[in-house]
Design brief:
Blueprint: E1 2-7, E2 10-12, E3 18-26, E4 30-31, E5 34-39, E6 46-51, E7 57-59, E8 67-72, E9 77-82, E10 91-102, E11 105-111, E12 115-119
Parallel strand pairs: 2-12
Antiparallel strand pairs: 1-3, 3-9, 4-10, 5-6, 5-10, 6-7, 8-9, 10-11, 10-12
């Protein structure tokens, strides 16, 4: 079995920064595209950013220029550097791996449990 665990959420003032981490554990051979998603109260879960195993990235328009997604394939870890945070960034942030493989075993759409990010003065 594999799992994703997020770290780094918390309370920050507007204009501040946070860095989220997502660590994969278990028997892991390779991880395909990974991504960060978020869900604010009363809203649907939305894409924040994705990154392929080769490092290609996609960002939601609302976070372009403020957030940076990255990953360390050797450590099976993904990061989200969030700068110039706004109150509207308040949400539970989830990490996701589209596919994790180990030998002949494949896990699809693996989600973390989420970490709360609150931006407030």
């Amino acid at each position: 079995q594999v799992q994703l665990v997020e770290f780094g959420g918390g309370l920050v003032q507007p204009g501040g920064s946070l860095r989220l981490s997502c660590a994969a554990s278990g028997s892991i051979g390779a991880i395909a595209t990974m991504g960060w998603y978020r869900q604010a109260p009363g809203k649907q879960r939305e894409l924040v950013a994705t990154i392929t195993s080769g490092g290609s990235t996609i960002y939601a328009d609302s976070v372009k220029g403020r957030f940076t997604i990255s990953r360390d394939n050797a450590k099976n870890t993904m990061y989200l550097q969030m700068n110039n945070l706004k109150t509207e960034d308040t949400a539970v942030y989830y990490c996701k791996a589209d596919r994790i493989t180990w030998g002949w075993t494949t896990y699809n759409n693996v989600w973390g449990q989420g970490t709360q990010v609150t931006v407030s003065s």
